[in-house]
Every structure is written in structure tokens, then in C-alpha cells.
Fold these 4 entries.
Entry 1:
Amino acid sequence: MKKRLLAGLMTTAMLAMTLAGCGSTSSGEQAPSESGETAGSGDGYSMTLIMSLRDEFLSTLEAGSKAAAEELGVTLSSQDAQNDTGKMIQFIESARNAGDDAVLINLVDAETAQQCIEAAGDMKVVFVNRVPADTSVLEAGKSAAVVSDENTSGYYQGEFLANYFKEQGKTDIKYLMLQGTLGLVHTEQRSASVLKGLADNGINATEAAAPLVAEYDRATAMDMISPLLTTTEFDCIIANNDAMALGAVEAMKAQGLDPTSIPIVGIDATVDGVQAIKDGTLAMTVFQDANGQGYGAVKAAANLIEGNPINDGTDYETDETGNICWVPFEPVTPDNVADYE
């Protein structure tokens, strides 16, 4: 089970954090395996993971990164930029000044990738979860990205909704959309690809109201969508992530409405999102492999240092440049939700 595997890796990471103190692994030494040999590559490397913020998904990515670092014998510290590009640059410079070999960056702003690379100096740079707006800044042997193709995440939502409505004999629908932070590449791609998925599968979808920019936040989504629930006609609610989808669920419940009466779809397959599918209040979500992204980022950084292809030692594919490593999305529905617990 994918979620059970993730839980085991998170436990390993949390144990490592407990032994080392919050924010880093216990030492630069590589833990011996059961055979007495050191585990994996990366012996003696020092890296810093800089997150845009610590939300539920990125905390899982952080735990997966630390589990991978423990496995590979890498010393990994982590920092929270609190959605501040200035702080992110400062953390990158601090990692460089401390002599780190690589920095893993979850971008606050996709437009600032070149600035981050420049701040990193001679360190290897791996962008994780959020791809640079201009991928030409990635340079073989020096910088890379470990991400998931956001064009597929929304498309899975669109395919699911299209099948749902075709079974009802509907080809014309109205939707409410809860969007994440504007300007982020994955916000734009998730929003566009769900509509493409609907159109490609024979559904004419129109806005019931202008998209609501809820910043990927559950409480914000709840507040923003509440006034529309009883004043607007709509057939479904599309959210760029599970947190906002669950905000819509809570808003409906607060007004005495049944969230199972219309399909509400999210992305990320968070613990709460998966439970909501089991409960029937969320129609579907899309599994974004936080552990896979975290593991892949640490592995890619070690590969850059060693001069290997960034996906060496993983099952992930790269794009034609070899600078982007793809961690696939997977649709999660009531039919397969048990696989993601």
C-alpha cells in the first residue's frame, strides 16, 4: 500500500530527527546496513532542503527527504522560508557559506529559479515539487528538477468528472473552481488541465462563478466558497488541492448541505483527503508522491555530485534534456482508495 509505505518511511525520518534534534540528521556519518556495509551512495555529503512553507504536503516531502538521506548517508538539514523569497535566498546563501554540497529548493516563486542558482554558487541545485518557470535555467551536471507533471494532475480530475457526468447523461455542466496561489506554474497547469480533460472527454464546462483564489488553504477556501453555495447553480467543485476541496466540504456541511450530492475533487491524496474519499464526501483526488519527490531530490543531488544521470538508482523517467526527473501522479477514487491508506 502506497500510504503505508510512506508511513514507514516517515517513521524512519522522524526517528532520525528525534536522534539528531529538529532540523537535521544525526551526523555526517553513514548508517551501517544489516550486512555491516554503508547504505547507498552519498557518503559524507551535506545538503539543505529549503521549503516554501511547512504545509501538510511539504511536511510529508520533508520526512521523505530525511528518510532518503538516512538511507544514503547524507547529512540533511531543512529550513522553512515561510513563503518569503528573500528568506529562501538567505537560506541558500547560508547553506553555501556552511560548505554544503547541494541545496534542494521548493520554490516560493517559480520565476526566481535563476536567482536561486546564482545564490547557490558552486553547490549543486535540485528544485523539488515546483518546476522553474523557465526550465532552460537548468544546466546538466549542475542543476535539476524533481517534480510531477502538473498537466496530468488536473487532467485526471477532468477525466473522472467527465465519466461521472456522462453516466448521468450530461454533457453541459457548470463548475466552481478553487485555485491555489496565482502565478505559480502548478496552479496554472492544474486549472487548465482539468478543463482540457473535461473538453477532451466530451464535456462542455462553463464557470458558475469566477475562480476563487484560496491560496491552497482550507480555511480560506471555506470562507470564499460559502456565499456561493446557496446563491449559485453549479454541478461540481474543482479544487487545485485537497485542503481547498476539504474547505468546500466543510462549507457545505456548515450550511446544512450534503457534500455527497455533487462531486468535489482535489489533488495530493493527503491523509485527510483519502479519508474523505472513504467517507464519500470527496469524490476523488490525485496522488502526488511526496515521498517519491523527496527521495528523488536527495538522490538527484547525490547523482549530480557524482556525475551520474539524475534518475540513476530510481525508476523515474527524465525529460528529453535529462535535467527534469518526473515522479508520476496517480488518480485516487473510491475504487482504489484502499491502496493509498
Note: Residues 2-20 form the longest helix (19 residues).
Entry 2:
Amino acid sequence: SINETELNFAMALEIEKHIEHIFGLQLTLVDKGKKNMYQSSFEIGDKCGFVCVGGQRNTYLVMLSGRGCSMAKEGWEHRLYTFLTTVATRGKLT
């Protein structure tokens, strides 16, 4: 059976596909541990933000830093809007 750590890593790999498409950035894929009440966190690029997985109600959190916004490939804002309005379930931008 798959354990929680493997499940979190598998979820991060799936999320990375969207991160790459939307922002043109990749995850470091090294679990940085608990962050923002999620069980696992993975750095986006070189200090561009974090993806947190293993939260309540099967949620995940993407945090993009100012550096991440400036390093993202042009047009990311439109791609993020499209993702949030067509792909994401209960997607929220704060």
C-alpha cells in the first residue's frame, strides 16, 4: 500500500505539471517538511515559492513569491486565470 509520504510526493508531481505550464517553473522535488499546516512542502524553482500538499479535504496550496512572479514566463496571469476558472475545483486566489 502507498504511504502518506509517497502520496504527497505523487500529488506534488501532478501539481508540478500545472506549475510548469502556468509559470514555466519546476519544483525542486525535495520535501521541505511541514508548512502552513500541510504535511509536505516543495520549493518552486530557486526561492520562487512553495507547493504544499497533504492538507485537509484533499487540498493543496501554491505560494508564489515576488521573485516567482518576476521569474515566471510571460502570460502567466492569463494561464493562471484559465486554470482557476476551468480546471481547479474550489480554486481560490488570495
Note: DSSP finds three helices and four strands in the chain.
Entry 3:
Amino acid sequence: MIHLGKTNTLEIIREAVQGLYIADEEGNEVLLPNRYVPENFKIWEKIDVFVYLDNEERPVATTDKPYIQLDDFAVLRCNQVTDYGAFLDWGLVKELFCPFKEQAFKMKPGGWYLVYCYIDEKTNRLVASSKTNRFLDNRELTVKEFDKVELIVSHPSDIGMNVIVNKIHSGLIYKDAIFQDLSIGDKLEGIVKKIRPGNKLDISLGQIGYRNIEPNADRIMKELQDHEGFLNLTDKSSPEDIKEQLQMSKKNFKKAVGSLYKQKHIDIKSDGIYLAE
């Protein structure tokens, strides 16, 4: 079966004036236009292509790699807005359409937007939606507390930053747990810190509890090595100073320093932390 909106591995079956015809194992064919035909090819060899609909709504293949595929999220640039909706640059000749009804906020040319790519059931076309929350579902969770998860930064709120978890669920990173600059569309790893009533997911960008001592300790050791064995930080330092230098909370800083001191890796003095001799 040839999958619309996905990368397919298909077999070259014949050459034509307009390009190559390639097919799946069931014999379903699609055209690879001349502009994408590789210089050297052999009949019956396989090729990776992305399949979508051309301007006449016919399936067509391309060797170009789009910035987004079916059932995925990405930040795309709006190229133009017409009476029908917005058209987004997704790395292909034909732009990706986002109807007005699928725009969380009215799109403007030159703007960048986090969108989800899906197939419109009425037209069978690939379209985009910036109303990403409607494609997330927390009714049946596929994660549990302390699981490592893949995150996409979605949008800010008054209490933190909303994130997409494993491309399935919605989650939240509270403000006091953010120690780095985050931008919409950023992809990073996190931990499920807590599952609250209603299957609401609290997410941490670091490890949790005793799990965060080792990576935070490693970070402090690296900073010490990069700064000639000294950091002008103590347990009396402000949370802001600690966050600026180490991108961690004061609580985690004190835990990590305590761990390093017990292991005799550091010396603690009134003016800061020193690498142990």
C-alpha cells in the first residue's frame, strides 16, 4: 500500500516520458516526475520517496524531504494567505494548506506556526492545523510517572509552558522548573514528574528526586573544570545566580553539591566551591 503523506520505499517498474513509475508490493503505482529522477537508476531497484497530491489532486512522488509528515508536528513558515486560508512552506513545490477554521490565531505571511499535519476526510488532501491541542488525548495515558518522554514545546501559559508529550498527550512544565530558554517547536527530552487528577501530566526537563543528583553533579563538575576549578556559588547564593550559571534550581544545586562533597570531589569554602586537590 502506498501511504499518502509518508515516506514510502517503492520499486522502479518502468520509465516514461514524464518520469518514472514506481510501485509497492501490491502493484499500486505512482509517478516520480522527471525533476526528481536520479541520474543513475535501474528498473526494479527501490527508492525512498514522499507521496502527496499534486495540483490536480493526483498522487505524486518526490525525493524531496518535507519538513513535516502525516500525523506529525512541526514549526512552518506561512508563505501567503488567500481568501481560502494560509499556505505554508513545508519544503515541497506545492505548499501545505491550512484552512482558516484550523488556525488557532489568524496566520500572517512570514509568520512561523506550530502545526499538525493530517488528511482532510472530505477532500482526502494533506492539510495543516495550528489547533494542535485537538490532536492530543490524555484520556488513556501511554506513560507513567518517571518515564522518559519526547517533548515538543507547544505554547506558553500563565503558569508555565505547555508541551506535546510523545506526539500523543499534552503536558505542562511549570515556570519554576524551567531553567533554559524554550521556543515553540523546540524538541527535547523530559520526565513525567507527576500525573494529576484528570490525567494531567506534569513534566520535568531534568531528572526527578534522587535521580537528578548525578546529572546535576556532573554539570557542576564540568563547570568547575571549565572555570579553573572554582565557582563563586554557595548555599547563600541567590536562586537567580544559580539558575544563570548552572541552569538548575537552588534546591537541586544544594543536593548535587552535598553529593559531590560526600564523595570528596569538591571543597566548600566561604567564597565558593573548589575542585578537591
Note: Helices lie at 213-226, 239-246, 250-262.
Entry 4:
Amino acid sequence: MNCIIIEDQPPAQRILKKYIEDMGDLELKATFADAVQAMEYLKTGSVDLIFLDIHLPKISGIDLLKNMPRLPPVILTTAYSEYALESYEFDVVDYLLKPFSFQRFVKAVSRVPVKNFMHTQLDATGGPVHSRNEIFIKSGYEYIRITVDDIIYIKSDADYSEIFLPDKKCLSSDPLRKWLEVLNDQQFVRVHKSYIVNASRIIKVMGNQLYMNNKAVVPIGRAFKDDFTERFLN
């Protein structure tokens, strides 16, 4: 995830930069000492996450939230606890009270909503090129990059999901319904209340079972069979 820091105190900037570096899956794009500079940057810069202090020169962090309602996800960093209740009116991801530990920082970042990082390329005629799209999945406190086409199937596990790839299995913090929103429904299809499959990874269909190219067998639920048959077998 690309992120920026809006913080006027150098010691606090250094701590955030160190935590971002240690996190591994965050890329710091810029650091601003006041909100005015950040607002100019946000007009054209692509950002996935903002670390925002409240007490800033010129414009406070709260005023920034009021003036720019369509900001990317925001994690507030402040030494003042009295703004916590007001800040959540702006749907911030988390409220980090200084001084905060790296563990608390990681917990805050893990609350950032999962984002689809698919990239569409254009060919010489301006049409889409189906490239090897990639997404980040949230697994505990980590974000893991995977190639969408490598997904064989996804299995629901209560409020979590198991993502089966050719060489490994990843546990995602997101439920199956989230993957239905993220993935291309022309390639991925729900075949059971607990399964989504990559149609391009199906080797054969026999009865109410799908045989995948990793030798797994996935059941077809009765409620999903007609739709699957109509879309892929007719």
C-alpha cells in the first residue's frame, strides 16, 4: 500500500517512517509538515493510506477530514485522546495515541479495508490487455501479494477464507462475500456456499463435483448448479 505522513514533529515523523519501513508491505510516498501541502499532493497523487496528526499548523487534522470527505483510509496519530470520539464521525480506520508501539501500529494498519490492486493495461488500439493482475490480501497483520490468475479456489472458513494457490495456501482475514466483490465474475464463480472457483482451473466436471488442476475436488451446491451449468457447460 502506498501511504503518506502528515505530521509536523520530526521525532514523530521518524518513528512513523521506521514503523512503515519495518512493516514491509507499506511504501511511503511523501511526508508533509502541514495539511495544506498534503491537500495539494492529494489532488493528483495516488494514496492508499494516510497517517494524519491532529495538531498541525495552518489546518488541523480534523479540519482536513471535514474539508476533504473523500480521503483514502486515514489512521490518526495524536497525543490528545479527547478527539477520539469526534474523529470516528469521519470514519477513520484507527486512532493511535502517542506514544504507540510497533505492535499497536501493525494492528491499526491491519484494519485498513482490503483493496483490489488490479491494473488494467491498454493495447495499441486502446483496448484492455488481460495481464497477470495482482492483489494484496490481508492475512493477520500482513499483506501478501498474489497473482489473481494463480488462485485455484477459495474456501470459506467462518469469517476467514482459505485461498488455494498452485504452491501454497493463504489464510485471508476477509470472508467469502468480500471476494465476490473483488474478483472478476467472468472468471470466478461461486459453486457452493463455502466455495468460489477459478473457472479456468477446472479440469473436469463429474456429477456434483469439480476436479481442479491441483487435484482438489470441490463440491457443487444444489443452489448453485443451474447457474454454473448455464454459464460454463452450455
Note: The longest helix spans residues 10-23.
